[in-house]
Amino acid sequence: MSNKTHESDVAFIKALAELLNENDLTELSVKREYGEDDTLNVRVSRRGEIVTTQVAAAPMAAAPVAAAAPAAAPASTPAEDPASHPGAVTSPMVGTVYTQAEPGVPAFVSVGTQVSEGDTLLIIEAMKTMNHIPAPRAGTVKRILIEDGAAVEYGAPLMIIE
């Protein structure tokens, strides 16, 4: 896949995020076909989750996820980036987020939960290893920016603790 296609994918996802915000939609899902074995599936959601899947082409095609995340995530002001918030807890790795220890049990934390430094906030599965993510400081969970089972990138904002 050429760099030009990669740049057009980033622009395409940003345009979808803008459509979502301008039309007050909660979710938008689009499939873009480049060829028989080259497809980009994008789902942009106001809940802060963006999922993209690239079939066959190149592994770099998933990169637009991080580029479009701030545009699609709900924010108190349109220009606010959750990752720059002083209370942001960011992902220390690439993986899949789990908000509970196992299906059917309560989540580790929810909005309004008081946490102490070191309390488990969530689990990130990376390379079949479950990594407990501790609270970096004591405080109250103000926002949860991810959903259970969502893929996250290194440095992606997970939640806000104040």
UniProtKB/TrEMBL annotation:
In the UniProt record, does the keyword Lipid biosynthesis occur?
Answer: yes
Name the residue ranges with Low complexity bias.
67-81
The pathway noted for it is: Lipid metabolism; fatty acid biosynthesis
Q: What is this protein called?
A: Biotin carboxyl carrier protein of acetyl-CoA carboxylase
Q: Does the keyword Lipid biosynthesis apply?
A: yes
Entry-linked NCBIfam families: BCCP
Species for this entry:
Roseovarius marisflavi
Pfam short name (any one)? Biotin_lipoyl
Q: Which residues form the signal peptide?
A: none
The record, for Gene3D superfamilies, names: 2.40.50.100
Q: Which GO cellular component does the record give, naming just one?
A: acetyl-CoA carboxylase complex
Q: Which residues form a coiled coil?
A: none
Could you name the domain of life of the organism this protein comes from?
Bacteria
A molecular function GO annotation: acetyl-CoA carboxylase activity
